[in-house]
Design a protein that fits this description.
globular; six-stranded mixed sheet; about 550 residues; alpha+beta
């Protein structure tokens, strides 16, 4: 496709270059004019600094502009002010696998802190049968609590929690790093089998039930405590994790406690340098503007980021709503924030690295970027239900410009070009590079794996029409006995899957089901030589 008109942004860039050319017309004698040097720095940078003014006076305006147009010639390896501040915005992500010994939402025993509990309340041997029980989070119920302490305000400032969990010798021996993850408001002290392992906003030693937390802490971002040095407190058999949570004051209305205990294994593979969060990404743009010598590159990197704009919050919501094949959340809200910040950083970094490069590369990267695919709803653009948001933005702003001789038919055809472009997570070693992914998209989404089918479609199924309960108790109430291996299904019918109405996809047809019964029960017996041979077990149902 040939562009027959310049978009508005290209005219602005041309005007900027024209202005730069005008600056070159005065004689070399005026190169030391501070006003002119300041004008250059205001036009192609973030404003004059004493160091930049002195530098322009030393090399001349023409040389400075030539240098800025070729930023690779500007050595920043000794720019400690820039490098130190940039490095502080990143962290190294080590590949790990986490196994929950105690997970969020587990059932805990708890006691309201209206009086002192027994001094043995945190010990394994303590009998907590008389305590209340409920799932975590436990607190005021301000959107993050499953168990609500509706009478806590103006009544008591603490709550005591206990959770008993069992470890086998094998699971105990498999523990690598032991992590206590706590989402809390405002303070707490945690004990493992009677020994203190972590605390926040509470003093050392015994803490009476009426003690208020020494500081405020908002729930919402869990904090990890590495207690690997204390994993010797664990034992095969019964263990207890005990926590006392304290509020900042009687009138406070936001206590919350959501604890988890994790076994963290470090996996093989390279570490990754990632941005710490969206706040750090915003700081990165300003830090480069203030401290980088590559002023024009920093300005244009921010310009392209603004021109091909996306939305972090919308990306977080999209990632947070993703689910695994078993309908569980694919990631926590915190992980969604971290993933979204990294994707936004990768997009901005590409624009920065290619700020003075080819616009085709910028547009192609933007088109294939998950941030843009989500922001302008191309993830919803599927065959038969075209979403025109991204196509319209390409024509109206990103490339052509408003009212630039395109019609509705052009929008519809361009939307068809982007039909099916979506977000796909692949293993790092198989991930295509940008912008090549638009030209050679991955053929398979998800982490690549090798599947072995050991229970396939076909014969061998027993089935029971739901005209009555398949395994009732003596009172005729339903039980799950029919799901056990010992159940005798000899009198059940035999058939091959699919089993159903026979509307083109069923081998065994239930011709009498309509107006007769709503359910059907199926069983299939199979033999497994060694359960340990299965790395992951997937049930696929159509």
């Amino acid at each position: 496709m040939v562009l027959r008109a310049f978009p508005r942004w290209l005219g602005q860039v041309a005007l900027l270059l024209f202005a730069l050319t005008l600056l070159l017309l005065p004689s070399a004698a005026r190169a030391d004019d501070l006003a002119q040097a300041g004008h250059v720095l205001n036009r192609i940078g973030y404003g004059p600094s004493p160091a930049d003014l002195a530098y322009i006076q030393a090399i001349g305006i023409e040389a400075y502009i030539t240098e800025q147009l070729d930023p690779e010639t500007i050595d920043e390896s000794d720019n400690a002010a820039l490098l130190e501040r940039q490095d502080a915005l990143f962290e190294w992500l080590i590949p790990t696998e986490e196994t929950r010994l105690v997970g969020a939402g587990a059932i805990w025993r708890y006691r309201k802190g209206t009086s002192e509990p027994s001094s043995a309340w945190k010990e394994i041997r303590f009998d907590d049968a008389s305590w209340l029980q409920g799932p975590t989070g436990i607190g005021y119920g301000d959107g993050d609590d499953e168990t609500v302490l509706s009478d806590m305000r103006n009544s008591y400032v603490s709550v005591y929690l206990r959770h008993t969990f069992h470890l086998t010798e094998a699971s105990l021996g498999a523990i690598a790093d032991l992590i206590l993850r706590v989402d809390y408001d405002d303070g707490f002290k945690a004990y493992l089998n009677g020994t203190e392992i972590a605390r926040a906003n509470l003093p050392a030693g015994e803490v009476p039930h009426g003690t208020t937390a020494t500081g405020s802490h908002e729930a919402g971002t869990p904090r990890d405590f590495d207690i690997s040095a204390q994993k010797n407190l664990l034992r095969a058999g019964e263990n207890v994790l005990a926590i006392q949570a304290h509020n900042r004051g009687l009138t406070s209305s936001d206590l919350s406690m959501i604890p988890e205990l994790l076994n963290r294994q470090i996996l093989p593979g390279p570490t990754r340098r990632v941005i710490k969060g969206i706040d750090e990404l915003q700081q990165l743009v300003h830090i480069r503007g203030v401290y980088s010598r590559r002023q024009l590159q920093a300005v244009l990197g921010e310009f392209w980021e603004n021109h091909l704009t996306t939305d972090y919050d919308k990306l977080v919501d999209y990632l947070d709503e993703l689910q695994n094949s078993d309908a569980t959340d694919a990631m926590s809200r915190d992980q969604a924030r971290a993933e979204a910040a990294q994707l936004e950083y990768q997009e901005y970094q590409f624009f920065y690295d290619n700020a003075l490069g080819n616009f085709t590369d910028l547009l192609l990267y933007s088109a294939t970027s998950p941030t843009m695919l989500v922001y302008l709803d191309n993830v919803l653009n599927v065959r038969g239900k075209a979403n025109e948001n991204y196509a319209r933005e390409i024509l109206e702003l990103h490339a052509f410009g408003v009212d630039n001789r395109y019609e509705q038919a052009d929008l519809e055809e361009l939307a068809r070009c982007f039909t099916g472009w979506n977000v796909c997570k692949v293993a790092a070693e198989n991930a295509p590079s940008f912008p090549d992914s638009a030209l050679e998209p991955p053929l398979r989404c998800g982490v690549l794996s090798e599947d072995e089918v050991f229970l396939d479609l076909g014969a061998g199924w027993k089935y029971f029409k739901g005209t009555e309960e398949p395994s009732p108790d003596t009172a005729g109430e339903p039980t799950l006995t029919w799901t056990t291996g010992a159940f005798d299904d000899a009198d059940w019918l035999d058939g091959a899957t699919g089993i159903g109405y026979g509307d083109g996809d069923d081998t065994t047809v239930l011709s009498d089901m309509r107006n007769n019964y709503l359910s059907v029960y199926l069983r299939r017996t199979f033999t497994v030589d060694n359960p340990a041979d299965f790395a992951n077990l997937i049930l696929e149902v159509a």
